[in-house]
């Protein structure tokens, strides 16, 4: 029995970590079939649960990093737009008061959105 479990452990260790749910089900089935909870089996089951949690945490980190990257990108676009509007306001070509007021309004809007 120990040799079977050792062989099964070795085979399962070589599989990708994206299969922890299936492995957990197999462990549960083995436990029910043999009616025992040996220390190796408990250790193996805990290992599978930890592997599943690590996989879920990695997925969560990837999602959060994508959100952060998107926010940084939006912030950079806003900063570039603000700098462009500041340059437009201070340029000598914008002598018209109406144009100056419109640009100032856009600048205030973009700054407030940021």
What does this structure look like?
By secondary structure, this protein is an all-alpha fold. The protein contains 4 helices and no strands. Helix 2 (20-34) runs antiparallel to helix 3 (39-90) and helix 3 (39-90) packs antiparallel against helix 4. It is rod-shaped.
Primary descriptors:
114 residues; mainly alpha
Give the termini distance in whole angstroms.
Answer: 65 Å
Please, how many helices?
4
Biggest sheet overview: none
Oligomeric state of this protein? single chain
In total, how many beta strands? Answer: 0
From the alpha carbons, calculate the radius of gyration and give it in angstroms. Answer: 30 Å
Structural class, by secondary structure, is mainly alpha
Uncertain regions: pLDDT < 50 for 5+ in a row?
none
SSE string, helix = H, strand = E? HHHH
Q: Report the helical percentage.
A: over 70%
Content of β-strand: under 5%
Write the layout of secondary structure elements.
Blueprint: H1 2-13, H2 20-34, H3 39-90, H4 97-113
Question: What is the gist of this entry?
Answer:
By secondary structure, the protein is mostly helical. The chain has helices spanning about 1-15, 20-35, 40-90, 95-114.
